[in-house]
Design goal:
Strand content of chain A: 35-45%
Shape of chain B: globular
Oligomer: heterodimer
Number of strands of chain A: 6
Structural class of chain A: alpha+beta
Strand content of chain B: 25-35%
Largest interface: A-B, 37 and 42 residues
Number of domains of chain A: 1
Structural class of chain B: alpha+beta
Shape of chain A: globular
Largest sheet of chain A: 6 strands, mixed
Number of helices of chain A: 3
Chain lengths: 172, 429
Amino acid sequence: MTALSTVDRAIQEDIKEFIAREALAVDERRFRDWLDFLAEDITYDVPLRVVREGLAEWELSPTGRIFQDNKQTLEVRVRRLETDFAWAEQPPSRTRHYVTNVLIDDSEKTGEYEVTSYCLIYRSRGDSIEPNFVSVFRKDLVRRVGDSYQIARRWAAIDQAIINAHNLSIFI
Amino acid sequence: MEARLRDIREGIDHGRFPAYVFNDQEIFDLEQEKLFGQAWTFLAHESEIPKPGDYVTRYIGNNNLIVARDEHGEIHANLNMCRHRGNMMCKSEMGNASHFRCSYHGWVYKNSGELIGVPYLAEGYEGKLKRKDWGLVKARIDTYEGLVFGTFNEDASSLEDYLGGFQFYLDLYLKQGPNGSEVHGPPDHWITETDWKIAAENFAGDGYHTPVAHQFGFNLGYFPSSGATHSQGWAASIPGKGHGIGLGHTPGFTPFAGFPDALTAEIKKSLTPDQVEVFSNTRTAVGTVFPNLSFLMQPFSLIPGETGVRFVTMRLYHPIGPGKCEMYSWCLVPKDASDEYKEAAYQAYTLTFAQAGTFEQDDLENWARLTRMAKSSAAKGIEFPYLMGMETERDEDFRGPGHVVKPYVNDSNFRNLWGRWADYLLGEA
């Protein structure tokens, strides 16, 4: 990776705005809107992190996943949240996705961009005074579609090995 | 305390169980000593450590252990504590190592637990320290169909006796073809404000909660049963041992639905005719090995209306405090299945019962709230009714062992579970 991106600055600005609006849709619980940010062929993966020694071959499991979704299964998750019986989100979590360190580079394909970001998810539930913090490194593939963009891949690695939340009924 | 435990023990036989025990320091401390210090505890699946030197770190009660396969292929479970000053030897969850070296003064142990290296042995110890006397503290281990259990109790009966016939039911999860089951990747594990007993009870066959707690599954129409027929099936428990399983049935169910046909043929060959008879029409099989290891098998369609795929999750509820446990959750897959099927089963597992799983989410939400309420002062005097199926006679036609009753919705397994729990706490197990 070079010190500076070769991607046109205007495109970079657009993608940053796109990513911020995507976070806003999730945090405002506009999940149907959020699905529109995602490409039909999206892969949405969050690997399991395992505490390993420094020289181990991997820390992020090659097979273990916390999320392993596609557009259809993400839609099932959203449909579930639209029922009156998604108890894990009744009352709903209050989330805030703080997206920073957004870096945008060309991918192998024209019109598709490798977008990495840091994302700190603050999640507050019910009357609890202890929020959950989920800090992740995201590697998205963002695709130009007409005048806008779509996420064609989201891959996110959670920094904490044991997550301090009793469930993950939220989106990363 | 003993008088109180006697009351609890008697109450269980009459279908009553106190609320406060689900979040109480005194009960927790007693469980550590009398239950987890005595019973067999699940440590690992053999497929997690397939090669010499492979290890995982796990717990018996509050004791951290290294569970390792030595250079000869034998499995050992040793307290993860240097015998010199007690430093934790291994800080990694899993890996491969022939030796463990303490990072404090440098004592070195083989992965079998034998002490082989002591710096300045000759100069410092003047011949007073014999290495053979200071190996890592060993736990007894025993295995069943790939499941490795451990205990520090030298007097514990064999694992075979401890399981006491529950193997018949465990085989459904473990004998998935001639080479059995294997884990698909490392376990999820996460901390939850849930008492381990709530989870253990739920998985001992709580068919009652499904139509409500997981109502969305019925609502979206991708659950292969309906609320109306959901109560059908059996509750089986092993009297005096604490183990229990719920076998949910659906009328018109395709035998072994959700397994590929070729795999079904292999599974049928691996099971006995009685097991095939009992399991072929089982939709949901949800069971607990006393005290804190559970299994669930269920066909599940990722997309409502599609043909389901059968997945197995194995989970361990490791108690870390009153009302608090660390959930471990694995996906087991048939070793001989195609990679394609293994992937599909794993995906069904992640969408439903991994930590972001849609079913797991709702269970934990309920269990955490239940745990919180159990702590309240009013809960001290409250008992719960465990009265379902009090009068139900054993189904004599059922071809599996233990106390087996209809319907699936029944408290019989839970009375057995908590009876065994109380016996341990009273020192009478």
